[in-house]
Design brief:
heterodimer; A: 160 residues; alpha+beta; five-stranded mixed beta sheet; B: alpha+beta; Aldehyde Oxidoreductase, domain 4; Aldehyde Oxidoreductase, domain 3; 3 domains; seven-stranded mixed beta sheet; 18 helices; 28 strands; 26% helix; globular
């Protein structure tokens, strides 16, 4: 079985895997990072979105072996200790989550959305999150959260 | 006690931190030592005889521990929790529902074999090596045609595929009302089948402990005690003290996780057989063919009116599709959760409804968000909208003219229910104002200039939830009680653990219930912890469905708090050397009336556990109480939903441009959470109206909408932001005044959307539109419309 090596949430990791192992299964089953979820089998729902080399990607569309040498960030790696990332904090503040299952993917997608478009309009947020399905919130509060999260991320970037 | 965290405060949710940081624990996140994995081989046919199964190659495949088929299964079938009797008094047909099929499969996805292996991939690979000989049989799919002569038969004992043929109401009185009608409006409607699609696929881990003989099942359930009762007592014959069911974090349910499913029984049973924990998790394509589906009614309805548009009588005939087997609560959905709602918010004096339930070769149908009430509301509000057009009356005026007035409560309907409270004019007026209804024609004219067809639609609805008085539902066929339990454990230092039989799978009970108890006991919110979802921790519980958690589960907690306060008052009286009748409890303090003698709750709690100075001959030490709350009536949320759409006639695309919902949900504990519940319900209702439809091939019975590439889930760019508000009248019969909010969005919204679409298309002479109003359907209607669009 091949061995794969990558950096996940700042930590160097490696594992022996079957070649067909998807990145999401490597993260969940081998690394125990169960915050990344599997909600479908057609790469439609976005529950499994993580960042690979700084870009959001559905981790069910990537073989683990394709992430060899990559920097991977999962939802577990977003907060700094107990201090939530501004986007996580905005989701909490605006009730942008209910059952929490789509939430990790939604937050990871939203962070990447704001990186590429720091001041998205409501329509741009709705279109930008088209690849993430939520069944609980009707997206109303997710949109509010992403708007607020974008603002907070920009403020943080200016401070930083 | 502060108002910042008490009843009515928009407290941020306590569950969010773990969900936002990836630290939730969903069933598929749980791994037991030495765990094996299960894969279920499912039928590729809608109807077929199994003439042989050869598992030898699969058994020899790498990593395989066991391959189990119907021939190996020696336990019971899945039970149905509700019995309906037909018009003639005969009980419904209740076919066997084995977790593994032996001789025959009855829908695509029916369970044929369970493969247990060291890894999931090995189990799945081995399942491909199982050789099953099927003799395909003709299938019946169509709801409308299932009971026609000559249709393929799903069950030999169900002649013409009829499960039951039921009715409610006064036929003679209704016929008499129609005989004197000035006008009768008639409508034919399909309430299409939907797939619930909670984002977390179902999952189950069965774990048999050989040392103790105990079984544990971790499962994606809305009601772990119900699963323990059904699976333990009826399916596997495991006594309840030897069976623990845990429903940890659950990623949405919407009804689909109420039911006891085959996979739960199979992993538990097989774990005992192979002596290893076994995990099964549905792939999404598997969920599409194994999760209970929703709706699927075909109805004809007639409304009799006098010359002023006053409703005189209502006749309804519905065919409801049960699928191939009876799921846990399926029979009550089209009957007592549907036909009893046909009075709606109106004074219609005579109603008669007939409901025929049929079997087809499809996945079983059961409760899905709203369960029967969206079907009743859609029927009634489409019919009323059509009646207004027939009578050339204003859509609002016809409703006002027939509303049950707010001074008429309690109001007895002709279809069994007695409404306790409501103010339909108030929710209507607020919704009209918020939606700027009066200015709509200006917006329509403005849209026409842009070449768009703009329409507005209204739905004034009511639903019954907070289920339910056990004695009432028992007399109607329920095979369970529908109370709820709550336990309050006050710790020596005055903090509190709350144990509830309700289950949260997105509703935020850990926050709302903590607010309720913090407010009731006058202690800080952070001193209250809410525990749910584990039969080893909670005394008993009926779980969460039918918008019942606050109205029933919350009321149980209030009753438990009453007991706590009663006992604590006696302890406080002893400490203050006063009579208990002179001591009052307010804002967390026990005070001798008319004096400044007072001691806080925490001191009483400590005394209860350190009873040195204590009325020991009268009272036991400790401070922990349990209450079972059985509701006195259903609760009756209602309100007004107003939808505004714009249709692009070139593409047929319908865009919801405004949506206003004003709901009377009774007492609100956390308005932020209540609004979120409404938003989610609206998305599912708008999804049904415009996007979602479960489609089977009528000949082969193959599911054509079996993935997210084919079944249209509402996405962020399909929906607008919503305008929501509540206008509460209090429920009169529970101690909180709460009515329930989980389902209102999905119940009230679909007819508002379709009425808006029809209103937009009305200038073209179009009078009907079925759900979902897809671009294709709308475009075709425009192409074949009696009138052409006038040039803007």
């Amino acid at each position: 079985m091949p061995t794969v090596r990558m950096t996940v949430n700042g930590r160097a990791v490696s594992g022996e895997i079957e070649a067909r192992t998807l990145l999401v299964h490597f993260l969940r089953n081998q690394l125990g990072l169960t915050g990344t979820h599997v909600g479908c089998d057609t790469s439609q729902c976005g529950a499994c979105v993580v960042h690979v080399d700084g870009t959001s990607i559905k981790s069910c569309t990537l073989l683990a072996i394709q992430a060899e040498g990559a920097e991977v960030t999962t939802i577990e790696g977003l907060a700094t200790g107990d201090e939530l990332h501004p986007m996580q904090a905005a989701f909490r503040e605006h009730h942008g989550l209910q059952c929490g299952f789509c939430t990790p993917g939604m937050v990871m997608s939203a962070v990447d959305l704001v990186k590429t478009n720091p001041d998205p309009s409501e329509q741009q947020i709705r279109e930008g999150l088209e690849g993430n399905i939520c069944r609980c919130t009707g997206y109303h509060n997710i949109v509010k959260a992403v708007k607020a999260g974008a603002k907070a991320m920009n403020a943080g970037a200016m401070k930083g | 006690m502060t108002t910042e965290t008490g009843i009515g405060a928009a407290v941020k949710r306590r569950e969010d931190f773990r969900f936002l940081t990836g630290r939730g624990t969903y069933t598929d996140d749980i791994n037991r030592p030495h765990q094996a994995y299960g894969y279920i081989l499912r039928s590729p046919y809608a109807a077929a005889q199994i003439t042989g199964i050869d598992t030898s190659k699969a058994k020899a495949a790498p990593g395989v521990i066991a391959v189990l088929t119907g021939a190996d299964y020696d336990k019971g079938g899945l039970p149905c929790g509700w019995q309906i009797h037909s018009k003639d008094g005969s009980p419904m047909i209740e076919p066997a529902h084995p977790p593994l099929c032996k001789d025959q499969v009855r829908h695509v996805g029916d369970q044929v074999a369970l493969v247990v292996a060291e890894t999931y991939a090995e189990a799945k690979d081995a399942a491909e090596l199982i050789e099953v000989d099927y003799k395909e049989l003709p299938a019946i799919i169509s709801t409308a045609k299932a009971s026609e002569d000559g249709a393929p038969q799903v069950w030999p004992e169900a002649k013409n595929n009829i499960c039951f043929d039921w009715h409610i109401g006064d036929k003679a009185a209704t016929d008499a009302a129609f005989a004197k009608a000035h006008h009768v409006t008639k409508i034919d409607l399909v309430n299409q089948r939907l797939i619930p699609n909670a984002m977390e696929p179902r999952s189950a881990v069965g774990d048999y402990d050989r040392a103790t003989g105990d079984y544990t099942l971790y499962t994606t359930s809305q009601n772990p005690h119900v699963i323990r009762l059904l699976m333990g007592a009826f399916v596997l014959q495991i006594p309840e003290h030897k069976l623990r069911v845990v429903a940890p974090d659950v990623g949405g349910g919407f009804g689909s996780k109420i039911f006891h499913y085959a996979e739960e029984a199979l992993v538990t049973w097989a774990s005992g057989k192979v002596g290893r924990p076994i995990k099964w998790t549905a792939e999404r394509s598997e969920a599409f063919i194994s999760d209970a589906q929703g709706r699927d009614h075909v109805s004809h309805a007639e409304l009799a009116m006098d010359k002023d548009g006053k409703f005189l009588g209502l006749r309804v005939n519905t065919i409801a599709n049960m699928g191939a087997y009876l799921s846990t609560f399926a029979p009550c959905v089209p009957t007592y959760l549907h036909a009893t709602l046909l009075a709606g918010v109106y004074t219609t004096p005579a109603i008669y409804a007939e409901v025929k339930a049929v079997f087809t070769h499809t996945v079983p149908v059961d409760a899905y968000r709203g369960a029967g009430r969206p079907e009743a509301t859609y029927l009634l509000e489409r019919l009323v909208a059509k009646a207004a057009r027939d009578m050339q009356m204003d859509q609002v005026e016809i409703r006002r003219r027939n509303f049950i007035p707010k001074d008429a409560f309690p109001y007895q309907t002709p279809v069994a229910l007695q409404y306790d409270s409501g103010d339909y004019e108030a929710t209507l007026d607020l919704a009209l104002q918020m939606s700027k209804w009066a200015d709509f024609e200006n917006r329509r004219a403005e849209a026409a200039k842009r070449g768009k067809l703009r329409g507005i639609g209204i739905s004034t609805y009511l639903e019954a939830c907070g289920i339910a008085p056990s004695a009432v539902v028992g007399s109607l066929g329920a095979r369970a009680g529908l109370y709820e339990t709550g336990s309050i454990r006050v710790h020596p230092t005055g903090s509190v653990t709350v144990f509830t039989g309700s289950h949260s799978h997105g509703q935020g009970h850990e926050t709302t219930f903590a607010q309720l108890v913090s407010d009731g006991l006058g202690i800080p919110l952070e001193n209250v912890e809410v525990v749910h979802g584990d039969t080893a921790k909670i005394p008993f519980g009926m779980g969460t469905y039918g918008s019942r958690s606050l109205a029933v589960g919350g009321s149980a907690l209030v009753k438990a708090m009453d007991k706590i306060i009663a006992k604590a008052t006696k302890i406080a009286a002893h400490l203050m050397e006063a009579a208990a009748s002179d001591v009052e409890f307010k804002d967390g303090n026990f005070t001798v009336k008319g004096t400044d003698k007072s001691i806080p709750f925490g001191q009483v709690a400590l005394t209860a556990y350190v009873p040195h100075n204590y009325p020991i001959t009268e009272l036991e030490p400790g401070l922990e109480e349990t209450a079972f709350y059985d509701p006195l009536n259903f609760t009756y949320p209602g309100g007004t939903h107003i939808c505004e759409v714009e249709i692009d006639p070139e593409t047929g695309i319908t865009q919801v441009v405004n949506f206003t919902a004003v709901d009377d949900v009774g007492r609100v504990i956390n308005p932020m959470i209540v609004e979120g519940q409404v938003h989610g319900g609206l998305a599912q209702g708008i999804g049904q109206a415009l996007l979602e439809r479960c489609v089977y091939d009528e000949d082969s019975g193959q599911l054509l909408t079996g993935s997210y590439m084919d079944y249209t889930m509402p996405r962020a760019d399909d929906l607008p932001s919503f305008q929501v508000a509540t206008h509460g009248t209090m429920c009169t019969h529970n101690p909180i005044g709460a009515k329930g909010v989980g389902e209102v969005g999905a119940i009230g919204s679909p007819p508002a959307v379709i009425n808006a679409v029809i209103d937009a298309l009305a200038p073209l002479g179009i009078e009907d539109m079925s759900m979902p109003a897809t671009p294709l359907k709308v475009w075709q209607a425009i192409q074949s419309a009696p009138k052409k669009m006038s040039a803007a």
